[in-house]
Amino acid sequence: MSHYEAPIREPLVIGEKSYHDITEDIARPIEGKANKNWYMAFYIALAAMLWGFGCIFYTVGIGIGVWGLNKNIGWAWDITNFVWWVGIGHAGTLISAVLLLFRQKWRMAINRSAEAMTIFAVFQAGLFPIIHMGRPWNGYWVLPIPNQFGSLWVNFNSPLLWDVFAISTYLSVSLVFWWTGLLPDFAMIRDRATKPFQKKIYSLLSFGWSGRAKDWQRFEEVSLVLAGLATPLVLSVHTIVSMDFATSINPGWHSTIFPPYFVAGAIFSGFAMVQTLLGIMRKVTHLEDYITRLHIEYMNMVIILTGGIVAVAYATEFFIAWYTGSPYENYTYMSVGAATGPYGWAFWSLILFNILIPQLLWIKKIRRSFIWSFIISIAINIGMWFERFDIIAIVLSKGHLPSTWWRFEPTFVDVGIFIGTIGFFFVLFLLYARTFPVIAQAEVKTIMKSSGEHYKKLREQGIHGENH
Amino acid sequence: MKSSKVIHAFYKDDEVLVKAVKKVRAANHHIEEVFTPFPVHGLDKALGLAPTRIAIASFLYGLTGLAFAIWMTNYMMIQDWPQNIGGKPSFSWFENMPAFVPIMFELTVFFAAHLMVITFYMRSRIWPFKKAENPDPRTTDDHFLMEIPFDGNETEITSLLEDTGAVEINIVEKH
Fold it and tell me: Shortest CB distance from B132 goes to which of A172, A203, A468?
């Protein structure tokens, strides 16, 4: 009984499915036609994206003075959005790498889409530091390459440069991890394609994957080692993002708690975004048998855990700010001053969306409800945006000298670029959902016998047929 | 190249396949190749494949990345153009090292991951525009294919394969 799994565990694949049925189910959204809803969502996202691109061109043409930044608040929506998107990008690699190391079978139904989300989110994140440079054509100055300035090199002491290395390593490693996993699934689509053009495209995408025994042996080893490499990588990326703040001398930012707290927050927001996307995708692509209530519940458990870590971090920050007795600390993002000051609404939004609403997930009924999970995931997405906004804007709005105190007001360009990246993200994700195998079908086939509902039932009845 | 005949035996179940592989090898037949739609656990052992050394390669690539990062930070920040940045020691790589740890870590991962994947693609001969070599399109769906070269003695080997639970047996000319 090599496929034994305790009967008390709920099945991960529902229904009486053969290997061929899985192939059919995963290939259907690709081979079928898109419906009206898809087109509607796509055009809305496309319009948002184009509006955002317009705002980016405007910014680059005129200068970042068109944003709401001023001399005291030099970082605001741009870096808020950057950190928000990078954070969202953390769930994908966590699901595919960390859960692989822990041998969690439930990751197989969601890892493909979570990784896609990661890659698309990191694209959005990468846009912000580049346009914030003001002169994006000089963006290559962040690379350690010989140059015309008397070989003045980049500064490896700077956390901003660590970010360049961390984010580009993260993006490229996530990309090859994702693509290597996609090869057998592209090959499956290729081998059943009937239209010549489709066949050509998927032959190209599948890199000529043939599925030899030796290929699979290497494939599994490569996946395992990549998971082992990606696990510390995913932790390092948000650690380094937090160091952009933590190594500065601003009270409120200069905090040793930041790296673990940012990593937990990133996983928290990343899983929320996975919930948001999969909640819609499982319905639209009719993959309810693969992305089940159990998957939703497991993700909600991760959300409760990481949300709890984040809540404890907020409490610690608030306590320490008060306990120092320093009046300056009373104006950091987690303080009485912030709660009652002009940004009180942002402070209380953070508390409401990030701490209070996720507590509903302790209730099993809510944790296992699709619609509640979806609503709560949206709340967390908003809450995590406010977290970054609070950390950046509240801290910077109250400088060391009261005469420098200022407020940040976003302009339509700030808002436009943010909405544009959301549009860009959804354009990529919607195209992905139509053309890529959205579930790692080769991997799901390996757990059919241990975790498929059909096989579990057969085992319970004591039937071990040769052909089952 | 001389044309040769091979038998393509199809199976529809991974456990049946692994048993069949063991049986065929026990009967002293050489199995040229097995194509499967997903990784089958225990198949590499049943086939007698040597374990892959790609993890060792990855470790060495990681060391290369680490060495490169050390060389790069030392050359750029200490040797070529030392600068006083926040009072950090610009005259000694070792004393400035803590600030370089993130770079050393990222480059270790970067080299280990990418060079390993490239090695995998090269060794398994997969790359863009490569033509797929699985003999039957069903092997990426739900069929498992065993390829056995043979000369003469057709009935003996086909009856052996039928015994192992093959759902389809074809004899094809190769090359």
Answer: A203
Query: Closest to A217 (Cβ–Cβ): which among B49, B110, B130?
Result: B49
What is the b/e burial string over A222-238, where b = at least 16 CB atoms within 10 angstroms of the residue's CB?
Answer: bbebbbbbbbebbbbbb
A400 touches chain B (CB under 8 A): no
Instruction: Report the 10 Å Cβ neighbour count for B54.
Output: 21
ipTM of the complex: 0.93
Q: Which residue has the tokens 């990326």?
A: A237
Contact call for A156 and B77, based on CB within 8 A: yes
**Is pLDDT above 50 for A1?**
no
Closest chain B CA to residue A216: B39
Whether residue A434 is predicted with pLDDT greater than 70 in this model: the reply is: yes
Task: Report the number of distinct structural domains present in chain A.
Answer: 1
DSSP string covering A274-318: HHHHHHHHHHHTT-TTTS-HHHHHHHHHHHHHHHHHHHHHHHHHH
Give the structural domain span for A357. 19-141+154-455
Structural domain harbouring B108: 54-123
pLDDT in tens, B128-139: 988 888 888 889
pTM of the model: 0.92
**Is the CB of B126 less than 8 angstroms away from the CB of A220?**
no
CATH number, residue A432: 1.20.1630.10
- Contact flag A207-B55 (C-beta cutoff 8 Å): no
Let me know if residue A462 belongs to a domain.
no
- B33 and B59 fall within a common domain: no
Task: Give mean pLDDT, residues A43-47.
Answer: 96
Closest CA to B57 of B112, B124, B123: B112
Minimum Cα–Cα distance from B124: chain A residue: A215
Query: Measured at the alpha carbon of residue A139, what is the angle toward residues A83 and A60, in degrees to the nearest 5?
Result: 80
Residue A225 inside a domain? The answer is yes
